Amino acid sequence: MPQPVMEQAWRSSLRRSAYAILIALAAGQVAGRILSAEYVLEPSLHRPADLVTDPRRPWPTTPPPALPLFSSNDRSRWATVRALVEHGRYSIGYRYEYPPLGKLSHLEAQAVLLARSLSVSSLWLSGGIYGPPVLPPPLYSDHGIIFEPGWTSVDKILDPETKLYYSSKPPLLPTLLAGEYWLLHRVLGWSFDRHAPLIVRTILLTWNWLPLVVYLVLLARIVDHYARTDWGAIFAVGTACFGTFITTFSTTLNNHTVAALGLVFALYPALRIYWQSEKGEPLNSPWWYYSLAGLFAGWTACNELPALLVVIGLGLLLVWRSPRNALLGYAPGVAVPLAALLCTNYLALGTPWPAYEKFGSIWYEYPGSYCAARRGIDAAREPVWLYSAHLLIGHHGIFSLTPVFVLAAISVLVPNLDRTPREASYRVLLYSTAGVSVIVFLFYTVYVYYALKTSNYGGWTSGPRWFFWLTPLWLLAMLPAADRLAATRSGRWLGYILLIFSALSVAYPAWNPWRHPWIYDAFQAVGWISY
Fold this sequence. Notes:
The protein is mainly α and 531 residues long. It is built from 19 helices and 6 strands.
């Protein structure tokens, strides 16, 4: 064998060994965090119970239950999983009213409570100043899973007709998870009453950890195909393992990491189809490549609505490659998860449309609801330009928290960055990533800002979670810039610095990913923000 070929094979083997080491380290680290997952009370976020003037939540007088449930977001989903198996329904709670109030909004209920208070006050005055105190009767009382200690969540809606509570999160993912819980419940006898930590950790290992390992392997294969330098390839895979919020949020149930993993599972078979043509091989890609691409593209869109852009984009590319296979493979693959989403929405709420469609109605702003009286970051309302700036380079910034993604922007914006031309499939991927990223950013900073009148940065979250699903696209997009950095020592050092600060942001929420970013905490500490 000629020496150059032998050297190339050796370098390829060494590069893949580096991938394997990085992936093994990331897999072990995430598995360890899942197995030790537990909600921890942080003293800095609480106040003494008797210090009522402090806006922070009171320190509990009794220890909370030891549960690996981290926030309102994941508790709402877990409550649906539990309700489906243990009660056979999507409802996660119910309300008793005294007397039945009907379809009252939060403001209407406040008026009723005020009227009752005035009535009680008149009784108190007529009975004499020294009479026993009389309190107005309560308007309602709430019961069910979502009101149990350790399970409370603000991410719930109330049916104004039936007075049943439901999760405000799409029901498809919890329905699938309920299938695994049903097996654990029937075969091993596990229940959330007695085995909640075991159940949650087992399901997280199944749905978060195992797909994460596959995601890293497939992503490394795509990187290996497109990278021009060993350093650039290893840098990109190392960033995927330790420099993005995908690993941070793998310890909690959420839709964002699920969508990011699904995106790679859709991209890999689609790119394999194009790699065959770029190598000059016959157009003989099996139809199930198209089906897998469609299935996971649809799954990604089920977990992140803006990912419908990916469904359309991949569909057009695959139609151009093989109209027949796209029609018989890709289209049915997309239809399966989307149909399942509509079906589970209908089973849960009686309508195929998601609960978000009811945002701003009495389903969300019922008497006593959190949505009717938001506070903290959930009540933030800034000018759209400032909101956009914070999502790019501010306290929840894509580039400020994970500056390594600046390389992706450079790869798109700087012409002739490549010294060696790349395949047509990569150029399509690069500029499609830029287009999708801009559209998604405008969706959240313009449409959501003005139509839904919210600018809360995703609430309590350690990063810009609405954009997490784009992470694999940005990792692939940064390859030209990473390969250029590999050429010089100063360039490589710049890459290390960017990666250090990205890894810092990813590791900052050590106990709970549903916490504010380190830049947010720093801004708050110096008084630059107060929400």
